[in-house]
UniProtKB/TrEMBL annotation, chain A:
GO terms for cellular component: membrane. The chain crosses the membrane at residues 44-63, 75-95, 132-154, 193-216, 228-249, 269-302. This is Phosphate transporter. Belongs to the inorganic phosphate transporter (PiT) (TC 2.A.20) family. It comes from Natrinema pallidum DSM 3751. It is found in: Membrane. One of its GO terms (biological process) is phosphate ion transmembrane transport. Potential transporter for phosphate. It is a multi-pass membrane protein. Keywords: Membrane, Phosphate transport, Transmembrane, Transmembrane helix, Transport. One of its GO terms (molecular function) is phosphate transmembrane transporter activity.
Automatic annotation (TrEMBL), chain B:
It holds the Pfam family Usp. This is UspA domain-containing protein. InterPro entries: Rossmann-like_a/b/a_fold, Universal_stress_UspA, UspA. Belongs to the universal stress protein A family. It comes from the Archaea. Transmembrane segments: none annotated. Residues 1-141 form the UspA domain.
Length: 392, 141
C-alpha cells in the first residue's frame, strides 16, 4: 500500500519535473535556437546536462530549505501531503503554460508547503520570513543592475554584440579525424563564432541556474517525507526534466509564446545573465528564487533605463541615437488627475519611450505575477486544514 | 454634427466592428484610427523590446502598420472615400486613448476581446475609456 503511494508521489514529481523542463528550455535556449546556433535537440540535451549539474551541486541546498527547514517537523510531509503539495505545484505550472500567466514555480512551491505547515501548525516563520525578504530584495537588485546597464552601457554593448549571420552553415563536422569535431566553415567569421558561442554559453548558464532553484520544486516534498533520499531524488527529477526538454520544449521553442523572445538579442543576453546570476546566488544561500519576477524586473529596468538615458550631443548629432522627445512624460499624466477640457490639451503631444513605463501599470504586472502563488498558498492551507485525508 | 471621431484599434474583430460602425454612423466625419503600441505584457518584453529599438518611431510603425492596413481595407470595403487619419501612442492602451480623446468629439471603441492573460495584465480597456473619457464614448459590441 505504502509503495503504491510512493510510486504515485514519484509520478507526480516526474510530472512536475517534466513541465519544468518544458517551461524553462524556451527562455534559456530560445535565443540560441532562434539564431540557428544549435538544433532543438542539442538545446534539450544541453539544458538537461546543465540542469543536472546545477541541481547536483547547489540545488540540494534549496531542497533542504523546502523539504527540511520550512516546516519545523518534516513529519508533516506524509506521503499523502507530499502528493498534495506536488499537485499544487503541478497545477500552477499548468495554469502558467495554458493561460499564459507566468507563475513562479518556486514561489508556488514555497506557498503550498507554507500552507501545509500553517495547517499543521508547523510552519517555521523565521525561514519563511527570510525567504520572503529575499523575494522582495532580489527583484530590486535585478532592476537596478539592469537599469544601470540600460541607461549607460546598452548602446555600447549592442554595437559590440551586433551579430550578423553569414550565409551558409556555421560549422561542419570534420570527418577526417578520429573523432568528428565541428569546425567553422569558410563562410563563418570569428566575430560571428564568438557571438554564437556566447549565446550558447548563456543558455547553459540559464540551464544551470534553473537546476539550482527548480529541482527542489519537483522533489523537495518527497525528500522531506524521508521516503526518498536526496541523491536518487535529484537523479529522478533531472531525468524527468530531461524528458520535458526534448518533448514539450520543442513546442515552446517553436511557438515562442514567451514574452522574452520579443526582446532584441542583446537585451535577452543581459536579462539572462543578470537574472541567472541572481538565481544562482540565492540558491547558493538556500533561498528558492523566483526567476519570473526577477527576469521581469530586469526587463523593466533595462527598458526604462534605456528610455530615460542621457544622450551625448555627439551621439545625437551623428544621428546614432534618436533623441527622446520628452523626458517628463512619465509624470505628465497622473491617475486621477483632472483631464484638460476638450481641445485644451496640446494636440501635438509627442509620444516618448518613457510612456512605455508607467509605474502603476508596471506595478500591476508584477503584482499579477504573484496571483498563482497566492492562490496556491490559500488553496493548500484550506485543503490541508479541512480535508482529512492527508494523515496530519 | 460630429466631425472628429477617434477609433482606437488593436488587432481584433471587435475593433474592426468599431471602425465599421463609425463609418456607418458618422459618414461625414474625419476619422482617426489610433493604435497603441508597447502595451503591458506578461514579462514586459513587448514594451522593452520597443524601448530598446534604435529608432523608436520606426519600431512603433512596424507594429502599427498591420492594424492601419486592416483599417484602410475596412474603409475600402465600406466603399467610402473617407480620409483616414492614423495615430500611434505608447504605453497603456486605456491611458493613451484617454490622453488623446480630448481632441475629438466622440470615441468609438470595440469591447475588449483579449485573452485571460491580457485581461489580467492590461485590464478592460473599453471600460476604462468609457469611465474616464472627457468626450462621449460609443462602445461597439
Amino acid at each position: 500500500m505504502v509503495s503504491v503511494l510512493l510510486l504515485v508521489g514519484i509520478l507526480v514529481a516526474v510530472f512536475v519535473g517534466y513541465n519544468v523542463g518544458g517551461a524553462t528550455t524556451g527562455p534559456a535556449f530560445g535565443p540560441a535556437v532562434g539564431a540557428d546556433a544549435i538544433s532543438k535537440t542539442a538545446a534539450g540535451v544541453l539544458m538537461t546536462v546543465f540542469f543536472f549539474v546545477g541541481a547536483w551541486t547547489i540545488g540540494r541546498r534549496v531542497v533542504d530549505t523546502l523539504g527540511r527547514e520550512l516546516v519545523r517537523d518534516p513529519g508533516v510531509f506524509t506521503l499523502e501531503a507530499s502528493i498534495g503539495v506536488l499537485f499544487f505545484i503541478g497545477a500552477a505550472l499548468f495554469i502558467g503554460n495554458f493561460f499564459g500567466v507566468p507563475a513562479s514555480t518556486s514561489m508556488t512551491a514555497v506557498g503550498s508547503i507554507a500552507g501545509l505547515g500553517l495547517a499543521a501548525g508547523e510552519l517555521n516563520v523565521a525561514v519563511m520570513g527570510e525567504i520572503a525578504i529575499w523575494w522582495v530584495v532580489s527583484p530590486f537588485i535585478g532592476f537596478w543592475v539592469s537599469l544601470i546597464i540600460g541607461r549607460y552601457f546598452y548602446s555600447a554593448l549592442n554595437r559590440r554584440l551586433a551579430m550578423v549571420r553569414s550565409e551558409g552553415p556555421l560549422y561542419r563536422l570534420d570527418q577526417s579525424r578520429r573523432v568528428p569535431v565541428p569546425v567553422p566553415t569558410d563562410t563563418t567569421n570569428w566575430r560571428e563564432l564568438g557571438g554564437v558561442a556566447m549565446v550558447i554559453v548563456i543558455g547553459c548558464l540559464m540551464a544551470f541556474s534553473s537546476g539550482t532553484s527548480n529541482i527542489a520544486n519537483a522533489v523537495a516534498p518527497l525528500v522531506g517525507s524521508g521516503q526518498l533520499a536526496m541523491n536518487p531524488a535529484i537523479v529522478i527529477g533531472c531525468a524527468a526534466v530531461g524528458i520535458g526538454t526534448v518533448t514539450i520544449a520543442r513546442r515552446t521553442l517553436e511557438t515562442m509564446g514567451n514574452d522574452l523572445t520579443e526582446l532584441p538579442l542583446t537585451a535577452a543576453i543581459v536579462t539572462a545573465t543578470v537574472s541567472a546570476s541572481l538565481v544562482i546566488f540565492l540558491s547558493a544561500i538556500g533561498i528558492p528564487a523566483s526567476f519570473v519576477i526577477i527576469a521581469t524586473m530586469c526587463i523593466i529596468g533595462l527598458g526604462w533605463g534605456r528610455a530615460t538615458r542621457p544622450i551625448t550631443v555627439a551621439d545625437a548629432v551623428r544621428g546614432e541615437e534618436s533623441v527622446p522627445l520628452s523626458v517628463d512624460a512619465l509624470t505628465a499624466d497622473e491617475e486621477g488627475e483632472t483631464l484638460p477640457p476638450i481641445g485644451g490639451e496640446d494636440p501635438e503631444r509627442i509620444p516618448s519611450a518613457s510612456d512605455l513605463f508607467d509605474p502603476a501599470t508596471t506595478a500591476r504586472v508584477v503584482l499579477m505575477q504573484n496571483i498563482v502563488p497566492v492562490i496556491a498558498t490559500g488553496g493548500a492551507y484550506a485543503t490541508f486544514r479541512f480535508v482529512p485525508i492527508f494523515g496530519l | 454634427m460630429v466631425s472628429r471621431v477617434l477609433v482606437p484599434m488593436e488587432d481584433s474583430e471587435m475593433s474592426d466592428r468599431a471602425l465599421e460602425y463609425a463609418l456607418e454612423v458618422y459618414p461625414d466625419a474625419e476619422i482617426t484610427v489610433l493604435h497603441v503600441v508597447g502595451e503591458p505584457s506578461q514579462m514586459w518584453g513587448h514594451a522593452t523590446g520597443i524601448a530598446l529599438a534604435d529608432d523608436l518611431e520606426d519600431a512603433a510603425e512596424e507594429h502599427a502598420n498591420a492594424v492601419f492596413d486592416r483599417a484602410r481595407e475596412i474603409v475600402a470595403d465600406a466603399s467610402g472615400d473617407v480620409d483616414l487619419e492614423t495615430a500611434i501612442e505608447f504605453g497603456h492602451p486605456a491611458r493613451a486613448i484617454i490622453n488623446r480623446a480630448g481632441d475629438y468629439e466622440t470615441v468609438v471603441i470595440g469591447t475588449h476581446s483579449g485573452s485571460i492573460a491580457n485581461r489580467i495584465f492590461v485590464g478592460n480597456v473599453a471600460e476604462k475609456v468609457f469611465r474616464s473619457s472627457p468626450v462621449p464614448v460609443v462602445v461597439v459590441r
